């Protein structure tokens, strides 16, 4: 099959990573976090693979993302946690989507349950220190009281308590212990208030991998499912994870140029000697960060680096004076993934994190789903 540029998504790698985490986390359940189109990998195929491999829940930021999964036929328990007053709470309740509630949402969710003629399933969120969403410890008991009243009225059921960690990628930081203390207190208060909790959950990928004491009843697996490491000093391989995305394109042009040739907008790069330039047809319109400098690529199995600015549709690679121009147009360029550099190296080049490198690959890049070698027995 012919192709010009594509993001290959290895679903066998997704399954491998889910199985590995499910083993680590058992008896805790695994929620596959597939927000943001599964970090750029494609929410529906990833959700299917994750559930096949043992995940039992799906996690979304937006209700609209969860609704899209319901529309596609997914019936697994699903939670969405980031709302605005315009969120489709009523539809979420009708479609059996659990709702994270930090405070202000409670009245709206209860009203939506009334109009949906069905109780909402609610996970109350405690802010244990991240300072983003979640109820402050000061307001927690008031929130529990309000939720209990609605539950009494049959408008909702509090089925979960959850929180989000701020520094779990640095496992020795004391703030994680402080957050866990606050979480245990919040859970105990909820149980004392009479709620019969199905799931207590607070672990993201770094916590899953480094802090078993964060697992509780369920872990929320994002980055690790995609095979990437959340830690500065550990690679995917160190963690026995398999990166699932491979970003490739075909060389779009090749030419030899003299010393002093300026490259790309602003002419921020000039060749130091006669050299061969290869043009890669991926740019910031495809999600390659414009901030990247010396981004790594593999061509013909060798490492080269981008030079000059990344443009909307393309960037240039200086291949040096010794490469053969013959056959170069159309050759495969691997930005990251199997047989190429890692998303971590691109993150390094662009001053960001691997999470962003995969998530920002834009819809212009076709996703192609493949079955690699990480089968049930081929580990
Ligand atoms: C995105 C997200 C996760 C997943 O985090 P990873 O580090 O990618 O595993 C878990 N919980 C919440 C609330 C999130 O927003």
Automatic annotation (TrEMBL):
<dbReference type="InterPro" id="IPR020622">
    <property type="entry name" value="Ala_racemase_pyridoxalP-BS"/>
</dbReference>
<dbReference type="Pfam" id="PF00842">
    <property type="entry name" value="Ala_racemase_C"/>
</dbReference>
<dbReference type="InterPro" id="IPR001608">
    <property type="entry name" value="Ala_racemase_N"/>
</dbReference>
<feature type="domain" description="Alanine racemase C-terminal">
    <location>
        <begin position="244"/>
        <end position="370"/>
    </location>
</feature>
<comment type="function">
    <text>Catalyzes the interconversion of L-alanine and D-alanine. May also act on other amino acids.</text>
</comment>
<feature type="binding site">
    <location>
        <position position="132"/>
    </location>
    <ligand>
        <name>substrate</name>
    </ligand>
</feature>
<dbReference type="InterPro" id="IPR009006">
    <property type="entry name" value="Ala_racemase/Decarboxylase_C"/>
</dbReference>
<dbReference type="InterPro" id="IPR011079">
    <property type="entry name" value="Ala_racemase_C"/>
</dbReference>
<dbReference type="InterPro" id="IPR000821">
    <property type="entry name" value="Ala_racemase"/>
</dbReference>
<feature type="active site" description="Proton acceptor; specific for D-alanine">
    <location>
        <position position="35"/>
    </location>
</feature>
<comment type="similarity">
    <text>Belongs to the alanine racemase family.</text>
</comment>
<comment type="pathway">
    <text>Amino-acid biosynthesis; D-alanine biosynthesis; D-alanine from L-alanine: step 1/1.</text>
</comment>
<keyword id="KW-0413">Isomerase</keyword>
<protein>
    <recommendedName>
        <fullName>Alanine racemase</fullName>
        <ecNumber>5.1.1.1</ecNumber>
    </recommendedName>
</protein>
<dbReference type="Pfam" id="PF01168">
    <property type="entry name" value="Ala_racemase_N"/>
</dbReference>
<feature type="active site" description="Proton acceptor; specific for L-alanine">
    <location>
        <position position="265"/>
    </location>
</feature>
<feature type="modified residue" description="N6-(pyridoxal phosphate)lysine">
    <location>
        <position position="35"/>
    </location>
</feature>
<keyword id="KW-0663">Pyridoxal phosphate</keyword>
<dbReference type="InterPro" id="IPR029066">
    <property type="entry name" value="PLP-binding_barrel"/>
</dbReference>
<dbReference type="GO" id="GO:0008784">
    <property type="term" value="F:alanine racemase activity"/>
</dbReference>
<feature type="binding site">
    <location>
        <position position="312"/>
    </location>
    <ligand>
        <name>substrate</name>
    </ligand>
</feature>
């Amino acid at each position: 099959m012919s192709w010009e540029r594509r993001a290959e998504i290895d679903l066998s790698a997704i399954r491998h990573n889910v199985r590995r985490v499910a083993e680590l986390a058992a008896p805790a359940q695994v929620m596959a976090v597939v927000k943001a189109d599964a970090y750029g990998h494609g929410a529906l195929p990833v959700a299917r693979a994750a559930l096949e491999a043992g995940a039992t829940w799906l996690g979304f930021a937006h209700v609209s993302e969860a609704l899209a999964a319901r529309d596609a036929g997914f019936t697994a328990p699903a939670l969405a946690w980031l709302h605005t007053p315009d969120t489709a709470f009523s539809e979420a309740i009708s479609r059996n989507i659990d709702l994270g509630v930090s405070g202000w949402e409670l009245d709206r969710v209860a009203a939506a349950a009334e109009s949906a003629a069905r109780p909402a399933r609610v996970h109350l969120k405690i802010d244990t220190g991240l300072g983003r969403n979640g109820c402050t410890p000061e307001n927690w008991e008031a929130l529990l009281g309000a939720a209990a009243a609605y539950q009494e009225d049959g408008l909702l059921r509090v089925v979960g308590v959850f929180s989000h960690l701020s520094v779990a990628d640095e496992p020795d930081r004391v703030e994680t212990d402080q957050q866990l203390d606050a979480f245990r207190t919040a859970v105990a208060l909820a149980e004392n208030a009479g709620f019969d909790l199905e799931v207590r959950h607070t672990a993201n990928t770094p916590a899953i991998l480094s802090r078993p004491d964060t697992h509780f009843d369920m872990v929320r697996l994002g980055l690790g499912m995609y095979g990437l490491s959340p830690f500065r000093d550990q690679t995917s391989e160190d963690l026995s994870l398999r990166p699932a995305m491979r970003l490739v394109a075909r060389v779009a042009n090749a030419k030899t140029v003299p010393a002093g040739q300026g490259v790309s907008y602003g002419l921020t790069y000039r060749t130091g000697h006669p050299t061969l330039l290869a043009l890669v047809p991926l740019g910031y319109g495809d999600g390659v960060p414009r901030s990247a400098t010396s981004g790594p690529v593999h061509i013909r199995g060798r490492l080269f680096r981008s030079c000059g600015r990344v443009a909307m549709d393309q960037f240039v690679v200086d291949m040096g004076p010794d490469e053969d121009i013959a056959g170069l147009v159309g050759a495969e360029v691997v930005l990251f993934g199997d047989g190429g550099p890692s998303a971590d190296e691109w993150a390094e080049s662009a001053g960001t994190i691997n999470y962003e490198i995969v998530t920002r690959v834009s819809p212009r890049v076709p996703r192609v789903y493949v079955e690699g070698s990480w089968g049930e027995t081929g580990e």
